Amino acid sequence: MVTRVALLGDIHGNDLALEAALNDVVRQRPDVIAITGDLVLNGPRPSAVIGRLRDLESTAGALVIQGNTDIAVADHDYSAAFPWMEEVPAAHRAAAEWAHDSLAADELEWLRRLPAERRLELGDHMVLVCHASPGSQTSGLAVDLDPSLTVERVTRTDARVICCGHTHVADVRELGRKLICNPGSCGYAFDGDPGAAWALLTVDGSEPRAELFRTSYDAQSVADELSERGLPGDVYRAATVRTGRFIR
Questions:
Q1: Which of 79, 93, 148, 217 is such that its CA lies 20 to 30 A from the CA of 60?
Q2: In angstroms, what CA-CA distances link 157 with 97, 161, 235?
Q3: How far apart are alpha carbons 102 and 245 in whole angstroms?
Q4: How do beta strands 196-203 and 171-175 pair?
């Protein structure tokens, strides 16, 4: 039996990117859609993103998990969301507070209730959907991470396939018997391509495999919307959305 899982995440309040990616995803007719967290911080339309994802849950059974920035938005727990920062910048706090205030009470409660991980048993293979790495919403699997740290993090799970996000850089690689699939960021990319990133994982009787995709959308209009919002740091957020590179 063949199971196809569409993966996307790190949407960061960019509803236009999410809409564009999902239009392409639907055309692939996947069996499962999984969202790897970081849903609302930074972008101009957090409520629209949540509305679209909740609809996807109810109509398509999508699996949605919580990312570290979702903690910042829902509960203002900045130390939990950004533990690597000695002091969380005022611009981060301003964006989280703005997103929090933009969401209705039921949307915030939905964000709080999201799980940190989900697992799928597909034939002989377990697939883990997490935000950063197994057991962590904040310790990512960057391509240039020290190899010993990478091994330590991926061996925290028995899963054959680890589907993650957090780095905002699309990446598919084999590490021993682990397949790591990071679809990249659907809305706030750091790898030089501003398109909406997503991936398609295929699990069948042979070895699991994953393919990366990029969907074009009007990133300039999202950048303009961010610039007009006028929060501290929005000029850099707009440049990041427009260029697909982390600008600060």
A1: 217
A2: 34, 10, 40
A3: 26
A4: unpaired
Structural domain boundaries enclosing 155? 3-243
Among 198, 67, 47, which residue's Cα sits nearest to residue 137? 67
- Copy the structure tokens of residue 122: 């597909």
- Residue 237 maps to a domain: yes
Q: State the Cα–Cα distance between residues 88 and 173, nearest whole angstrom.
A: 32
Q: Is residue 61 part of a domain?
A: yes
Q: Are 244 and 194 in contact (CB under 8 A)?
A: yes
Threshold 0.85, pTM exceeds: yes
Here the CATH number for the domain that contains residue 163 is 3.60.21.10
Q: How many domains does the chain have?
A: 1
The C-alpha atoms of residue 231 and residue 147 are separated, in whole angstroms, by: 38
Domain assignment of residue 54, yes or no: yes
